[in-house]
Amino acid sequence: MLLWAGQSVSMTGTELTAVALPFAALTVLGASPLQISLLTACGFLPHLVASLPVGALVDRHRRRPLMIWCNVCQAVVLGSVPLAALLDGLGFVQLYAVAVVAALLSVVFDTAYQSYLPTLLRGEQLVEGHGKLSVSMSFATVAGQSGAGALITAIGAARAVTVDAVSYLVSATTLALVRAEEPAPAPRPAGARLRTEILEGLRYVFGDPLMRPVVLANALVSAAIGGVWSLWIVYVYDELHWTAAQTGICMAVSAAGGIVGGLLTRRLTQRWGLPRLMLFGVVGYALDLVPTLLAGPGTAGYVLVTVGHCLAIAVQMTYVAANRSFRQLICPPELMGRMNATSRWLALGSKPLFAVLFGLLTTWIGLWATLALGALTFALPTAVMLASPLRTLRGVPSRTLQEKSC
């Protein structure tokens, strides 16, 4: 409960900063579109460069102290933005540095955090925990992004970042209050090298017959999201003639669907099992774009897209919780950090590449056809899992049985 409470506050602050930091560059510094793009790229760079070595380093240390220090450092780094603005010293170099350092700290925190949760929760509790965190993720999207607009209007973009800095201090405090004992990491062999440990994690992820399809499916989902998300906004604006307010309402209603999906995750797991829930949930991504592609301008089309998006997000949240839970339940504890880091490296590293690819496709075949291709791309994760041993599983195999199969 302490972890959930702290993360709920922190995720809301993070969503707020995702809006406030670019607005600070625009309103305070008069940034050009190229400078905004560079600011966004700075936020992706540490995920591409640092994820794999961070995973190996996380497996060498207890996770909770790392998470606390990351939160404290995040508060200091983000707090420098409103302070510099107050002193009339905010510049592009500082914003780029803040984006890079904050993203690097997020890489460390998120890898440690996803590896820490299994030390607090077991079995169905772990599934329920991921379901509740999915609820928080959906709520944070609504509260953070909608609240950002009001806060930026009231106090300015740079000062609004203060809220995120404070949210990290709240998260650090709740983590410090956790009294559950965390086991020490397994001792490393004498002379163990970081490169060797990174390769060990990669061999496990790509060599395990159950882990491999789950991680690859997750990477394909993330890649397709990176390709179609911004194009979806362009499509509803240009082709369906939605206003910004209508788009915001659709996103808010859809996030409410995510809350419902997160709350139902444990019950659905008990009925179907994690492998089947993953197979069912990933279909929600492929169906998400169908109402948009079929709808026309006007009220009927708006209702169709909004309701369809809401149902799809509800199903997708069950997939997110099931995917993370399954990975953590079958992964050996000593490889947990490297497994999570490899998964994040593949997922986040593919997003900018697919964003560029789908942007080029739009110029060649048009917006509607590109979104239709995106819907087909979302079918690939389902195909990957159906071609694996997951299609015959109902529950999570014991680690002993899994090691024998490997």
Automatic annotation (TrEMBL):
Pfam families, per the entry: MFS_1 (PF07690)
Record SUPFAM superfamilies: MFS general substrate transporter
Coiled coil: none
GO molecular function, one term: transmembrane transporter activity
InterPro entries, per database record: MFS, MFS_trans_sf
Gene Ontology CC annotations of this record: plasma membrane
UniProt topology in membrane: Multi-pass membrane protein
Keyword line: Cell membrane, Membrane, Transmembrane, Transmembrane helix
Tagged with keyword Oxidoreductase: no
Transmembrane segments: 66-87, 93-113, 214-237, 243-265, 277-296, 302-322, 343-361, 367-390
Subcellular location: Cell membrane
Gene3D superfamilies documented for this protein: MFS general substrate transporter like domains
Protein name according to UniProt: MFS transporter
Organism in which the protein naturally occurs: Nonomuraea rhodomycinica
